[in-house]
Design brief:
Chains A, B: One of its GO terms (biological process) is L-histidine metabolic process. Chains A, B: It comes from Caenimonas aquaedulcis. Chains A, B: This is Histidine utilization repressor. The structure is a homodimer. In chain A, helix 1 crosses helix 3 and helix 2 packs across helix 3. In chain A, the strands form 2 sheets. A 6-stranded antiparallel beta sheet of chain A has the order 5-6-7-10-9-8. By secondary structure, chain A is an alpha+beta fold. Chain A folds into 2 domains: 64 residues, Winged helix-like DNA-binding domain superfamily/Winged helix DNA-binding domain (Arc Repressor Mutant, subunit A), CATH 1.10.10; 139 residues, Chorismate lyase, CATH 3.40.1410. The two termini of chain A are 26 Å apart. Chains A and B meet through strand 4, strand 8 and strand 11 of A and strand 4, helix 6, strand 8 and strand 11 of B. Chain A binds a DNA duplex through helix 3.
Chain lengths: 236, 236
DNA sequence: GAGTGGTCTAGACCACAGA
DNA sequence: CTGTGGTCTAGACCACTCT
């Protein structure tokens, strides 16, 4: 009986998780089959199935049809790295977010940008450069190219009120994105805009977003190393 | 009939996803109820329920009991950043992984380390420092403190055969981890070990792992900026 | 062929929101 | 009160693995 405040499938999940976390079952070990767990918990197969399926989604176990359920190799710890709208992030910390727009114009794409956006070099693209500030301190330099086909009204946005990310999310529904994070030294212009020395290391995030059939935008976001870090956590 | 290669719940998911991605349904809009989708697709409620529940898990819709299902505010884009064992990662690229151990000893924790590991400053901890190389090129400097209570045999490991991460995963089952990524300049020792200039920016990852009741390990991993980047992607 | 998971159904009872 | 989602059951058929 116990206190069954939790749904049955959660109880099965918790029980399984405990065995894995305690080391009683090691990676590669077989987890009791659905039939066995049905008996043990006195629940239907759908319930056990849901429990194990969700654990598999979370990466704790591996399931192979016809073979069985095993404790996953936990080598790849993974956690959600959230990429958030900078405005929202700053405001959530209870701070003031302001923006200084350095450039907002339509210009020919050029070879490199055209290739990333899937356009011709002579096609026009929107190019914005701005600095985001938290309580007046520069925390992000944003250099962004936007595909006019994906967000025709982009340049008309008042970027002191709305961030580019927000405008794009609202007007070019996101279907796909990729990013990479590197360490780099700022260019002269970036250093000037962020008010840092050219020798101060920075985190640079390159982001590329796809909306339906178009590559919507490519952006390079530069964060001063001493003022920003990406963090995350993970729980079994 | 169409080609129903996909399971029914996947078809419901795909149909719903398309409406959201295309912008036909905007954030906040109501998604058809389970009953409505049952009719439309001619499937049982459990099937529709699974489809919508999974979309909710993925963050695409929000469900409120008694109220309904709505398109989620898509502000929080997130993706899984995987933190993997360096050895596995190098080998998977088809390259050779070697290690140069600079230090492997038991020593008093000291204030700062003791605090992170939940020990006293005079308690002994295991301290290892090593450089990981991919085809002979240094790619990671690893400075790690290990809680002896969590992995008593740590120092006996042959680190030229097994990585610290792997040993810990096998002997101190992981229950929790947190990390942060920063940009920094290498210390003199790090620069020397990695064979880079002191002015070359690096990515530094601080990682803390918990195993059961113990903080198992804290590590600082330094990657030369020009030789490494973190990347990820996600799809709606 | 026996055992496993993947999917699906047609019901059911409940908790909750909103009129 | 009606409509919604949250959970659960006792079956079922299938595809797959392993021996």
């Amino acid at each position: 009986m116990a206190k069954s405040a939790l749904p049955a499938y959660e109880q099965v999940k918790a029980w399984t998780r405990r065995h894995i976390a305690s080391g009683k079952w090691k990676p590669g070990d077989t987890v009791p089959s659905e039939a066995a767990l049905m008996q043990q918990f006195g629940v239907s197969r759908m319930t056990v199935n849901r429990a194990l399926r969700e654990l598999a989604n979370e990466g704790l176990v591996t399931r192979v049809q016809g073979s069985g359920t095993r404790v996953a190799q936990l080598h790849r710890i993974s956690s959600r790295l959230s990429i958030r709208d900078i405005h929202e992030e700053v405001v959530e910390r209870g701070h003031e977010h302001t923006t200084r727009v350095l450039r907002a114009a339509s210009e020919p794409a050029g070879e490199e940008v055209a290739q990333s956006l899937g356009l011709k070099a002579s096609d026009a693209v929107f190019h914005t450069v701005m600095v985001h500030m938290e309580n007046g301190v520069p925390i992000q330099y944003e250099d962004r190219y936007v595909n006019p086909a994906a967000a025709p009204a982009y340049l008309a946005t008042d970027f002191t009120q709305t961030s580019p990310t927000l405008h794009l999310l609202q007007h070019a529904p996101l279907t796909e994105a990729s990013y990479s994070i590197e360490a780099c030294l700022p260019t002269a212009q970036e250093a000037r805009a962020l008010a840092i020395k050219r020798t101060e290391p920075c985190l640079a995030m390159m982001r590329r977003t796809v909306s339906g059939a178009h590559v919507a935008s490519i952006a390079r976001l530069v964060y001063p190393g001493t003022r920003y870090s990406f963090a995350g956590q993970f729980q079994a």
